[in-house]
Amino acid sequence: MRIEDGVEEVSASRNHLVFAYYVTGHGFGHATRVVExxxxxxxxxxxxxxxxxxxxxxxxxxxxxxRLFLRKLVLDCGAVQADALxxxxxxxxxxxxxxxxxxxxxxxxxxxEWLNSIKADLVVSDVVAVACRAAADAGIRSVCVTNFSWxxxxxxxxxxAGYHHRSIVWQIAEDYSHCEFLIRLPGYCPMPxxxxxxxxxxxxxxxxxxxKEVRSEMGISEDVKIVILNFGGQPAGWKLKEEYLPPGWLxxxxxxxxxxxxxxxxxxxxxxxxxDVMAASDCMLGKxxxxxxxxxxxxxxxxxxxxxxxxNEEPFLRNMLEYYQGGVEMIRRDLLTGHWRPYIxxxxxxxxxxDGAVNGGQVAARILQDTANGKNYAxxxxxxxxxxxxxxxxxxxxxxxPGRDISIPEWYASAENELGLRTGSHSADxxxxxxxxxxxxxxxxxxxxxxxGLPDTMNFLRRLAELxxxxxxxxxxxxxxxxxxxxxAGLFNWExxxxxxxxxxxxxxxxxxxxxxGSLVLQMPIREACHVAVQKIEPAKQPLWKHAQAxxxxxxxxxxxxxxxxxxxxxxxxxxxxxxxxxxxFMDGDQPISYEKAKGYFARDPSQRWAAYVAGTILVLMKExxxxxxxSISMLVSSAVPEGKGVSSSASVEVASMSAIxxxxxxxxxxxxxxxxxxxxxxxxxxxxxGVMDQMASACGEANKLLAMVCQPAEVLGLVDIPSHIRxxxxxxxxxxxxxxxxxxxxxxxxxxxxxxxxxxxxxxxSQSCPNGNGNNPDELEEHAIELLQDEASLDYLCNLTPxxxxxxxxxxxxxxxxxxxxxxxxxxHNDPVTTIDKKRSYGVKxxxxxxxxxxxxxKAFKALLTSASSEExxxxxxxxxxxxxxSYSACxxxxxxxxxxxxxxxxxxxxxxxxxxxxTLYGAKITGGGxxxxxxxxxxxxxRSSEQILQIQRRYRNATGYMPFLFEGSSPGAGKFGHLxxxxxxxxxxx
Length: 992
Fold this sequence. Notes:
By secondary structure, the protein is an alpha/beta fold. It has 34 helices and 32 strands. Pfam families: GalKase_gal_bdg (PF10509), GHMP_kinases_N (PF00288).
């Protein structure tokens, strides 16, 4: 349901009503929009009790009425910010737990008593979850008014920073389920906890004074340009400088600190009425929030924005702002270094086009009044137990955080369609091109290489060709891709050669986390891949983005090499679509900067941290191969490998990027060496402690074959044909996987601790068993036994220790867990260059050590079985080895509810009566890669029946969790097999 304009005022009700309006503790934006709704309720003759932590002046500036009652109370904490632009995810969860979870019982008791004491007719929440539950306990109807809900915001935090807080998401969703319906504001996020929705226009505060009146009061003439700086307060320690502004401009600073400001910066009073000041300005520079975006749109004020990290509401507001041509993104580096001018000048050339209604406060107030008077807006079909059940499912759904973080759950989209409602964002299917499909790859001459008939490569070339065609941005419905395409359109010089590479993700069939311990691994490159287009350009000929050009002009050194990258698909996650840097930033004098310094360079702005995987390949080539880059480089990255699913999306980006850089600069790097260099990118520049199997599979793999490799460090044994009667599938659990997470790193540390303890024990036994000075051997060990101990005392890789030696000699020497400080005191270090032991933390040692030793044995047996005669016993044994691997992961602590459920479904299907009546179809499954979520690999007979059973498993998992698993099936060539394409545009045939 959508209600637009046409409501001039809220007519007085026959009944005098009492509203309890709860306001979240996150930011002024919520309070300011609540003001507008409350103002109209009071004008209609009702009492409104506002429960808020915001200062009184936010409300009393607009409302002077005895019918307004302010109750100072904060029942949730919102998102805790480490600084003006960065949310601290773990701190947010811990603060919420402290504020709303621990005292929950007393909160509910207090609120129920208070609601009854004021005789509330309706509870309104923006968007305090516990208020909905308190209203239900008090027997009062409740309604939410918002553009986002906290279950959606916190879901990503739970997976990224505080898995132990996952019950928070469930509880919030359940509380929201008691809400009768949602009044949904524009720029909204997916909010499937609310089953009934009414869309209203923007809620915007009214203006008190005209532009001329405001400027007159401030003594600013009409010919002076004004930018308002609005970050919710000037960041502490941030020194503003006069040269930050274009000549003749003034900057009005909201919430300025007490430090002295330059003469062209003016501090606004703390209680300044921001809408009036905005309407009197020519541009705004700040961070995105509902209040700033809605009022910028309403007053057609161009908005230069800087991304706020880890607040998941932002992408939706940003898309709305850019849809109406009202926004320009400034990268954080330029904000902090004062390169404001090109952004401000670009913003003032915009023509914001929002022409929608801005009376959402009136509309919402009327709906609330009607509801309090007894009108029913809720659907009987989706009421009561159905909503509660959906909310519980939502809790599980949201803690997954699918590979594209803002995609809507399938079951939610289906429910929306049933009601004839529109969804809140577009599909996140990265395979659906948003561009016209009438272009032909014949627009390019392929001067080197072969597309190998790969449909994704041909589609990438079509998209590349279309960058140089006229494109109607206004008619494009996928507005969140517009900025990517605009940036990419100016990336290349079409008169020069472009190099294209392709690198697939991989399915970890068996071997997994044992790679860093030297195991044999078997990996299959998957069908999904990353494509990268690179062009090497003379600096004077490179088309530069305006802010990059301004940065060069400021240095006054003339054209210098610049790296510019566009990443397709970035707007479907919360990362910036572009990245640029001067290549001189990678130099410290005449030498490349250290990896540690590079890690800090990319970590400064989390929305651009992704660039470390791409740009990091250049630094590694500089440091490891002594390459120097004198030309500018333009790169376009487009990956169809889903993120966070444990199929090596990062390795595919690294391998494709380095392959393209190498090809464009004439570097001859073997596939094996390239994989090792890409591992260096991930370990040393990104800072993720991965082994090498991911990069090796992406670089050296071949279609429909398993890459057999001993990770000591990366010895390819060959390619193993997948027998025609065997098939592998990947099934995504929906739980987000990250090898940068603490669980993977702690298990790796535990394994290296175990290796150190084994080596120490072997050395001690060896010294006790060596002949004494009289030539006698006190233990009378045979010579070969001493040699074994000597080998084990210098053990390079855990996987070189056999299971029987481990069980006979060393298993009893290993503790189940060990404190970091105790280990370091006794053993000094664990000799792993890519992880660091936390002295205060305990690590699992025995299980983490046992896993790679037994896994290496399992992989060897698996490889041998693949080449044996086809039989039921062969498939059963292969499946059993995968099951054993899966439960070994769990013993290490790397399991997850979702992957365990999928493996259980495979087991149930395998042992069902139809399967047991004849030759089976499915035989085994295991979690893959770094564990703790992600994808499982299943093995079965290559037949139609097995494919049908895989589909049944998908449906059963969806019915249990609300999430339809992504299915990985099929294979494709690795980067080495694909090589590279060298292409050039046929400019003579270009159609204008």
